[in-house]
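Two folds, back to back.
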Amino acid sequence: MTQTKVDHEAPLSWSERFYQKVPVAPVWVGVGIVVGLLIVFLAISWAFGGIATVRAGEAGLWEYREARLGILVALLAGYLPTARRYVALGAEKNLADLLPLLDPPSREPDAAQRRVGLLDARAVRKAGFLGILIVPITALSIDRDPALFLQLEYYGAEQGFAWIVGAWMGWSLGVFVYATLAYARRFSDLAGQVERIDLLDLRTLAPFTRQGLRSALLWLVLLSLVSLNAVDLIWFSTIAVIALVGGTAALILPVRGIHLRLRQAKRAELGRVHAAIRGDPGALSGSLISRHGASLGLSDLLAYRSFLESVREWPFDAPTMLRFALYLAIPLGSWLGGAFVERLLGAALD
């Protein structure tokens, strides 16, 4: 039985506690953060001439880089901590659904749910600091001239907003990536504690799949948001590849452990059936159909073997894959919607 040990466990972070205490759904907390940051950015842009530049027609809203980056970092600064919160909530709910299957079943389900929400405090800080590096890396990938950062005229109020809020966004990004991978690893490890794999009904394993789907969706929404900066093609292409790889990994990693258990259980059951077909009288002992062993004929065993061979070794069914395919369409919709929003905002500022 495999277990995940978490050293240096700490209480939930201040942002997690904040999301818990606010009496509204996390999505509305995220929306509030975004709206507040956008109001601050618009006030700065108005005071320092950015909006005047757009209204004068010197640059379109999305052609004006400071506006584009300011809006983008505000969106991500509100989205990323919200996404992390939803990953944790999904993990708690899916763990609650898994508890009856575990060996031994948890006698303290509430405590078990709280434990799955705890992350390694040192790893969280490390991930956050590494995430902040995305800010200078992004700046270099867009400007591609390090000498610009040594010129005083490069810096202004709008740039300062992008750097400060961007650092917050980078921290949240690093923690979100770490949290997604940490929860995925824990669910993969929990597969070793599932007492019995029922090949006749894989619906009991749905919590593993739901954890992967939720994490993948949050990654693809992240891709949709960064697509707003598709103007900077090299930066966007790099982030898009990372987000697609992250989304696919988020889908697969939580179910990796249960996949191995499914494959092992399927091979063991097939071995028992093959032995029964060859005439071994005790071959079906421990089989899923052991109670019917005495009444089964050769044709029944052959039919059961055919069924076993068709049992999938991954807990993904057709609706799951269809849902993931629909999730992949979200970034495309955001690119089309982004063009509409740009025109709408541009018209409002004219």
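---
second:
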Amino acid sequence: MRLVRVPEPFDRDDFIFELKYDGFRAVAHIAQGTCQLVSRNRNVFKRFGKLASEIARAVQIDCVLDGEIVALDSDGRPQFYDLMRRRGDLCFYAFDVLAVGDEDLRDRPLIERKARLRRIVPNRESRVLYVSHFERTGVDLFRVVCEQDLEGTVAKWKYGAYLDGAAEQTSWFKVKNSTYSQAEGRRELFQKRLAPAG
């Protein structure tokens, strides 16, 4: 499901609002006691094998979860550069469930999928964490996010299906914090990593 950036936060009764966690988007395919983490580009995250094993142990049923791989510091705040170096407390923040066993949930309304997800994610401490949401109040949430120097917020139509396709079909929107301190120098970092050798 694509996220489309919008310039300003908003309030809507038919939307839910979540924190945007600064990490790597991943879909967790959990089956028969194993977990495979797959990127937006459909590549397997091989370097997070230990986290995948911990997800498989924590989630006791076969399912497909959408979420974010995040590195947390001692205060529980996402640290992107620690994630790049595979340091800190690595965890998986789950914000959607696409399937449970052979049951495809993608056509179900988001608010129903979130309720199902809440029953799947362990209540006990684990590396799998449930992404809570707020009703209606996207503007106030974004203000708090900026005050706390977090990356941004996500707004989602609560009755929307999960559409794996073009951005123009999406009902998910992100609002980025323009003063987010960890965004500084990131473009240059990725350009350096992608630059051809020689």
